[in-house]
Amino acid sequence: MFIGELSKRTGVSTRSLRYYEQQGLLRPQRRASGYREFDEPDVAAVRRVRILLAAGLNTDLIREVLPCMTEEGAVLAPTCEEMAQDLERERERLSRSIEQLQDAHAMLSSIIHAGEAMAAGVGRNGPPAGG
């Protein structure tokens, strides 16, 4: 199948499919005319790439772990022990990022609440002293 058919079957734009190829995530056959030719396993590969992207992995890590992934129903499972360890490290990195975002969210909420409190005070008692 050509790239347009792969796009229709996977719901992924042709632009994204070309990007996946550029990143080494897909390796289509090339005809003499230069057209890309994809096979049925490429449909599954695109589905796996989409799942791993949604899980927060970057394309460099996906390129490494993709050969060691199998589908267990609707989820992926690593088949290589070292890949499971890489995924655990990535999950830890995501956990740290989540904590940092939660801290930033809490700080921003306190700033907003302080601003709201000041605005409410201005409305009742006039401007703050010295202003």
* Content-based structural category: mainly alpha
Query: What series of H and E elements makes up the topology?
Result: HHEEHHEEH
Mean pLDDT: 88
Biggest beta sheet summary: 2 strands, antiparallel
Summed up, the helix count is 5
Number of strands: 4
Q: Give the helix level as a range of percent.
A: 55-70%
What do you see in this structure?
By secondary structure, the protein is mostly helical. It is 64% helix and 9% strand. The protein is built from 5 helices and 4 strands. It has helices at residues 3-10, 14-22, 40-54, 59-65, 81-125; strands at residues 29-30, 36-37, 69-72, 75-78. Strands 1-2 form a two-stranded antiparallel ribbon. Strand 3 (69-72) and strand 4 form a beta hairpin. The radius of gyration is 24 Å and the shape is elongated. The model has no long low-confidence stretch (mean pLDDT 88).
Spell out the blueprint of helices and strands:
Elements lengths: L2 H8 L3 H9 L6 E2 L5 E2 L2 H15 L4 H7 L3 E4 L2 E4 L2 H45 L6
In short:
The chain is mostly helical and 131 residues long.
How would you describe this structure in keywords?
single chain, 131 residues, mainly alpha, two-stranded antiparallel ribbon, 5 helices, elongated
